């Protein structure tokens, strides 16, 4: 059965205040900047969760679940700060991560249905996304979608995180930090318009509810009516609201309740027709596979292959409606200066109703329907204890967390109707019924040790996984109808994972570090032979160097990595055109460079380069030793912005960026006939605060963002199927803040 129903049918994401210096463990450090909200200088963050200054991250709880500064942490951490989100105005997670080194978005072309991406060659779409420190559980066709307007920041932790987070990929995790209540009153309203009939309104406001400040709130909301480059067939409609409230009865106790609901509609299929019939083997015979003549070797292919400009779906049967919600809390209490407890809890639910349709180049029609219901629960509780052993200071975490996922999926495919038969724009009978439950329970411990300039993080965890998968088939499901087939598969597995990482915080701004860790990752759904997908196991080694430029709000980082996964998950298009989940052993290695800065003169900068070399170790005789499809060896991105702080242009802000993706293969056979050529995309931004020309307009601003400014649209192939890049998109907004 298809486990990832992408439905790629072939036939059927120096203003550094020179603060007072402090001496700690013999290291001269700049004090941590703990500023909440967004000020005129771009400072932002939620103290105790994440803080930043402009484009430069200062602290994040994601890496260690403590408040160790980013510069000292022995791991690669990339952060998309609030200032970056504000300047680039991304519309989904792929766009938000577009300037992050080692992150590959757009491998499946323009597809607004899912936030799909790779990190260091590993697809972590299903298993690597966390929300406020808790895993975001996804099912085969039930993936939570992100609304960037609801985020404070995004933390990307590279390397294995299983030692403290449990089931997660060896490449790392992406932690989405939600907006939270503030201790001051604020508000903003915004109206947007732009490409593809876009009409949108936002608001975000909050603050204390009483004079004592013990209770504060925040409400963030967005409403959008829009199409896409594919017109009404692929909509971009959305209604989103995220209320939150914080209770702080004392300086020692804090409870924040976070909730969210989103109702979104897009296209059930965003695929174009693909040409297969013009492929021939070396004997001139038309083929649909790698080895038609049966000699045990892949045939040499000639002829055309790939997407044509005939969009396959029909607006009359192509809606993908998704309703998702979550509610939970973050609780923390300090017993004293040495001992504190934290607990994060969340319940989430997701309902998807996906219609998809297909017209081939000859006028033939088919359609399908998927209804999926996803319910998940997660709770993470840990005790943080600080103590000393001689000259070494320790921060010990001991915790337990539990995650549970249940999903039900119903699928049906209508008949293929050749012309002159009229297409049927009606729901087909649901004939396949899947249900799976997974429960993951883990206990963990981590010791964060500071000794003079050394930082050592060492941790271990044991997870217990229990999974039950059931599947039923029927010609038509009606009351009393017999089932054609029924099967139930069980799986129980446990795994120990660990991490050890060491850094040295030199007094000149440099921090070299090294780490090694293992990972364990539970996968939902089945693979092509209808067996339950096995958990993925992996290991990663990494070494790097961080440099906080003395006297400037700027950082430069470099790292080299090696990782290996056993039973890793990728997707591959089969002969029916469905993108199905398969498992393989592979390794990835490479290096990354990045720099971020927000300087006193108004300059903001992001620059990154990544080299990623993947190799399939075990899949089939035709693919072993090949590269994983869709992953470029070379990629770089540069974004530069300038905020005018004085003179006649004061209040004006300009920015532009370039994203480059190198050549890569379009399938795991690494056939040159469907390889993807290198390409570059240009983005731009301009904004103006009107208070500098009319004081009565204080708080009013205009901003225009353009992605893919020069409308670069090329074919992009992944897993044996071909798509097209998203074209130019321009969004203009008027905002009022108070």
What does this structure look like?
By secondary structure, the protein is mainly β. Helices cover 2% and strands 55% of the residues. The chain is built from three helices and 39 strands. The strands form seven sheets. The chain has a 22-stranded antiparallel beta barrel. A five-stranded mixed β-sheet has the order 6-12-13-10-11. Strand 10 and strand 11 form a beta hairpin. The longest helix is centred in the N-terminal third of the chain and has 7 residues. The relative contact order is 0.14. The N terminus is likely disordered.
Question: Could you tell me the radius of gyration in angstroms?
Answer: 26 Å
Task: Give the N-to-C terminal Cα separation.
Answer: 53 Å
Oligomer: single chain
User: What would you call the shape?
Assistant: globular
Number of strands: 39
Helix/strand class:
mainly beta
Major beta sheet summary: 22 strands, antiparallel, barrel
* Share of helix, binned: under 10%
Q: Please tell me the overall pLDDT.
A: 87
Strand percentage lies at over 45%
Unreliable spans are 1-42, 277-282, 286-303
Number of separate helices: 3
Summarize the structure.
A hairpin with a 3-residue loop joins strand 3 (43-46) and strand 4 (50-53). The chain is mostly beta strands.
SSE arrangement:
Elements: E1 21-24, E2 27-30, E3 43-46, E4 50-53, E5 56-60, E6 77-80, H1 82-88, H2 93-96, E7 103-105, E8 117-119, E9 122-123, E10 129-131, E11 134-135, E12 151-158, H3 162-165, E13 172-178, E14 186-194, E15 198-208, E16 215-225, E17 237-250, E18 253-267, E19 272-275, E20 306-311, E21 319-334, E22 339-359, E23 365-389, E24 392-413, E25 432-451, E26 454-473, E27 485-504, E28 510-521, E29 536-548, E30 554-573, E31 579-598, E32 603-618, E33 634-643, E34 652-661, E35 679-689, E36 700-707, E37 715-718, E38 721-724, E39 729-737
């Amino acid at each position: 059965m298809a486990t990832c129903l992408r439905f790629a049918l072939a036939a059927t994401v120096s203003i550094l205040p020179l603060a007072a210096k402090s001496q700690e463990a013999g290291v001269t450090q700049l004090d941590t900047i703990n500023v909440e909200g967004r000020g005129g200088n771009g400072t932002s963050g939620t103290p105790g969760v994440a803080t930043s200054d402009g484009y430069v991250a200062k602290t994040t709880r994601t890496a260690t679940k403590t408040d160790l500064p980013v510069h000292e942490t022995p791991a690669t951490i990339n952060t998309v700060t609030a200032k970056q989100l504000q300047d680039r105005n991304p519309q989904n997670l792929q766009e938000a991560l577009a300037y992050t080194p080692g992150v590959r978005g757009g491998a499946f072309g323009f597809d607004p249905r899912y936030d799909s991406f790779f990190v260091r060659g590993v697809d972590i779409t299903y298993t690597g996304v966390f929300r406020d420190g808790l895993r975001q559980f996804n099912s085969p066709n039930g993936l939570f979608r992100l609304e960037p307007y609801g985020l404070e920041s995004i933390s990307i932790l590279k390397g294995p995180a299983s030692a403290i987070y449990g089931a997660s990929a060896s490449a790392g995790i992406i932690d989405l930090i939600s907006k939270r209540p503030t201790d001051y009153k604020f508000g903003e309203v915004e109206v947007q318009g732009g490409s593809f009939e876009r009409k949108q309104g936002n608001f975000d406001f909050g603050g204390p509810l009483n004079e004592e400040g013990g209770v504060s709130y925040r409400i963030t909301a967005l409403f959008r009516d829009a199409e896409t480059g594919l017109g009404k067939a692929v909509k971009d409609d959305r209604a989103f609201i995220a209320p939150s409230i914080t209770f702080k009865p004392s300086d020692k106790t804090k409870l924040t309740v976070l909730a969210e609901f989103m109702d979104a509609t897009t296209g059930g299929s965003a695929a174009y027709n693909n040409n297969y019939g013009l492929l021939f083997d070396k004997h001139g015979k038309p083929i649909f596979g790698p080895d038609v003549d049966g000699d045990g070797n892949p045939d040499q292919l000639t002829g055309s292959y790939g997407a044509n400009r005939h969009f396959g779906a029909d607006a009359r049967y192509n809606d993908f409606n998704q309703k998702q919600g979550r509610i939970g809390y973050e609780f923390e209490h300090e017993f004293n200066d040495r001992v504190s407890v934290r607990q994060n809890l969340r319940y989430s639910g997701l309902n998807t109703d996906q219609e998809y349709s297909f017209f081939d180049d000859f006028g033939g029609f088919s359609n399908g329907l998927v209804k999926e219901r996803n319910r998940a629960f997660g709770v993470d509780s840990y005790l943080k204890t600080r103590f000393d052993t001689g000259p070494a200071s320790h921060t010990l975490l001991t915790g337990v967390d539990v995650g549970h996922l249940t999903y039900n999926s119903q699928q049906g495919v209508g008949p293929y109707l050749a012309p002159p038969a009229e297409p049927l724009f009606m729901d087909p009978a649901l004939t396949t019924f899947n249900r799976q439950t997974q429960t993951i329970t883990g206990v963990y411990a981590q010791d964060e040790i500071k000794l003079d300039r050394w930082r050592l993080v060492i941790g271990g965890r044991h997870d217990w996984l229990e999974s039950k998968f059931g599947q039923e088939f029927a010609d038509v499901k009606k009351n009393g109808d017999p089932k054609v087939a029924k099967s139930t598969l069980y799986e129980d597995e446990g795994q120990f994972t660990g991490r050890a990482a060491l850094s040295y915080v030199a007094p000149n701004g440099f921090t070299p570090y090294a780490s090694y860790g293992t990972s364990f990752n539970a996968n939902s759904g089945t693979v092509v032979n209808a067996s339950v997908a096995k958990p993925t196991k992996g290991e990663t080694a990494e070494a790097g160097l961080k440099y906080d430029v003395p006297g400037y709000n700027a950082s430069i980082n470099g790292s080299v990595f090696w990782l290996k996964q056993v039973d890793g998950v990728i997707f591959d298009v089969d002969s029916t055109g469905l993108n199905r989940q398969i498992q393989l052993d592979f390794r990835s290695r490479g290096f990354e460079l990045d720099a971020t800065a927000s300087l006193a003169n108004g300059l903001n900068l992001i620059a990154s380069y990544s080299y990623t070399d993947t190799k399939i170790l075990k899949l089939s005789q035709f693919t072993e030793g090949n590269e994983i499809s869709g992953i470029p060896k070379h990629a770089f991105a540069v974004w530069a912005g300038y905020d005018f702080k004085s003179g006649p242009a004061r209040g004006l802000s300009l920015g532009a960026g370039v994203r480059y993706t190198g050549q890569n293969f379009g399938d795991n056979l690494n056939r040159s006939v469907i390889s993807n050529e290198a390409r570059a995309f240009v983005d731009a931004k301009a904004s103006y605060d009107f208070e500098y020309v009319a004081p009565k307009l204080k708080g009013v601003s205009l901003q225009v963002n353009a992605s893919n400014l020069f409308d670069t649209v090329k074919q992009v192939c992944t897993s044996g199927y071909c798509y097209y890049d998203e074209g130019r998109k321009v969004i203009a907004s008027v905002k009022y803040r108070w």
